[in-house]
Design a protein that fits this description.
Elements (H helix, E strand, L loop, with lengths): L8 H12 L3 H31 L3 H7 L1 E5 L9 E5 L11 E2 L3 E4 L6 E4 L1 E2 L19 E2 L11
Antiparallel strand pairs: 1-2, 3-4, 4-5, 6-7
Helix pairs in contact: 2-3
């Protein structure tokens, strides 16, 4: 939760500006608009920071995180952002296939996921399957050859 506290000379100027508005109704509308604008700015900054921290593109984080915003009204004067997300496929973390497995960069740090693959065929002539859509798969068996029943 994001909380704002006003300290220093700004409070005196703020009180003077509200006195100029004359009516409490008009002041509530002005405060509500200011809170909503600040909330939008804070939400955008949080979205950008989330994209950097997760190693995803900003567009992907916007799709992956469900945001529910409760805007400020003159009676409530609160702006709340509820965010909820889930698991995100490795295909969104810039994956590359290596002989040891797929290398991807979740949280901005590249690491190898053993026993995973993105392409079909034998090394070194592996081919990308168009209907796999860049998805990363993990082998169900440990040696990569035997069939588990």
């Amino acid at each position: 939760m994001l909380k704002f506290e006003i300290h220093g000379d700004g409070l005196r100027l703020f009180t003077k500006a509200t006195a100029a508005l004359k009516s409490p109704r008009k002041a509530g509308q002005v405060f509500s608009r200011a809170i909503n604008e600040t909330g939008r700015i804070g939400g955008t900054a949080a979205g950008r920071a989330l994209a950097v921290q997760t190693g995803l593109r900003k567009q992907t984080t916007l799709k992956a995180v469900r945001r529910n915003v409760t805007k400020s009204t003159p009676s409530t004067l609160t702006y709340v952002i509820h965010g909820q997300g889930g698991d995100i496929s490795l295909k969104h973390f810039k994956p590359r296939e290596t002989q040891r497995g797929v290398s991807a960069a979740p949280r901005g740090v590249r690491q190898v996921f053993p026993s995973s693959f993105m392409k079909a065929g034998w090394w070194p002539k592996r081919v990308a399957k168009p209907n796999w859509n860049g998805q990363v798969f993990v082998r169900a068996n440990t040696d990569g050859y035997s069939v588990s029943v």
